[in-house]
Amino acid sequence: MATSTTSLGIPGFGGDLLAPGDGGYDEARAVFNGMIDRTPTLIAVCRTTDDVVAAVNFAREQGLPISVYGGGHGVTGAAVVDGGLVVDMRGMKGIQVDPAARTARAEGGLNWGEFDAATQEHGLAVTGGRVPDTGIAGLALGSGSGWLERKLGFTCDNLIGAEVVTADGRVVKASADENPELFWGLRGGGGNFGIVTAFYLQLHPIGPIVLGGLLAWPAPMAGEVVRFWRDFMTSAPDEVGGALAFITAPPADFVPEPVRGHPVVGCIVCYAGDPEEGEKVIQPLREFGPPGLDLLGAMPYVAVQDLITEANPHGRRNYWSADFLAGLPDEAIDTFVQHATNPVSPFSQMLIIAGGGAIARVPEDATAFGERTAPFNTHYLSMWEGEENDAENIEYTRAIAAAMKPWTTGRAYLNFIGDEGLHRIESSFGEKKYARLQALKAEWDPDNLFCHNQNIKPA
């Protein structure tokens, strides 16, 4: 690395430093959302917890804004900060799996593809990101939605311990027995309380082969499909995970030619149990319509985790929003379908995700995460190319989100939304939990050093 960066002299730092003009700097500062173009003063690629401590101390003492780069997949681009220091965790990818105890210790720079590859060697998994290059840190701290959530709960529900670098440069552990209030806040409160350098996660027997894949129907059938799926999921066993995805059919060989380039409604399925049993459970979905495209079958769990990777490449322009739904009555379905079957970009994805199952059985106060009982979650992912198309796509996203407001709970899954203001953060946790989180923030980060996130201000 260039000597100009190391001359800044971060005491005790043994990783790599990148500053503007250095080779690799532009690649290192790039994030998933192509709308984000920020220029940090310094990117500190950490190799050890001691490197993280050194970087945090340096930033605090120099008065530099700080951000934390895990996977860089969040739509806000919070991983990079203008004129500040990026604590880049991507040099910390250690993972140790204990198959007997069904636990894993995973460093904060891992992504879900790397994590799943290691745990699936033992036929084990935990709820993880729906795209392999999502970082484990941001997902877990933001609560952690994924295909296995109805069976296993959110990622944060399976967090059993964490190693944390605090704003004052200490290294502490958090668990049910050690710093329990901090542990509570880490499970859904985001990166507000420190930098987690290692996650201890409970694993479960999943795979290596599961029933998964995609079913798809043409857009004119969308209303009927959503109604049938809604009723099906209301009584579906916990093993059935998945979502409806309103997309534009790609020009791929597996897509029937008449459908290519046209809106369709897809159903992504992951059955977290015996594949043969899953075939029987899922059969009603396969028979409804029937779907014009049936790509459902026994496949490796890691392949299910890779299903939507191609549709979510780095570098496209992204604008997202989201809401939990209190219900999905016919009027709500008609409203959703009207908007979602008329996209302004062929790359956008409007999702309805089924809740319930294990998520709803975790006591409301057990974690910082703020919504347990919503039967459905929505995620509006507008994606497009070309800055000239920004206004049209942003307005489209806002329009569908606004139209669906009458059926929402008032709360949102924070990993699914952009920078939508403090009121969205407060309402997502609810008044009581937000006050508890503010008190926790005041204890662990009173000066709000860790503010480049869905920020909880100190009490």
Give a nutshell description of this structure:
This protein is an alpha+beta fold and 459 residues long. It is 28% helix and 23% strand.
Question: What are the SSEs and their pairings?
Answer:
Elements: H1 3-6, E1 16-18, H2 25-29, E2 42-45, H3 49-62, E3 66-69, E4 85-88, E5 95-98, E6 103-107, H4 112-120, E7 124-125, H5 136-141, H6 149-152, E8 159-165, E9 171-174, H7 180-186, E10 195-202, E11 204-205, E12 209-218, H8 222-234, E13 240-248, E14 263-271, H9 275-287, E15 293-294, E16 297-300, H10 301-304, E17 317-325, H11 330-340, E18 349-354, H12 358-361, E19 376-384, H13 390-403, H14 422-429, H15 431-444
Parallel strand pairs: 2-4, 3-4
Antiparallel strand pairs: 1-2, 5-6, 6-10, 7-11, 8-9, 8-10, 12-14, 12-15, 12-16, 13-14, 13-18, 17-19, 18-19
What's the gyration radius in Å? 22 Å
Mean pLDDT comes to 96
Helix content: 25-40%
User: What gross morphology would you assign?
Assistant: globular
Oligomer: single chain
Strand composition percent = 15-25%
Structural class: alpha+beta
How many strands, what sense, and barrel or not for the largest sheet? Answer: 8 strands, antiparallel
Distance between the termini: 41 Å
Uncertain residue ranges: 1-7
**Number of continuous helical runs:** 15
Number of beta-strand segments: 19
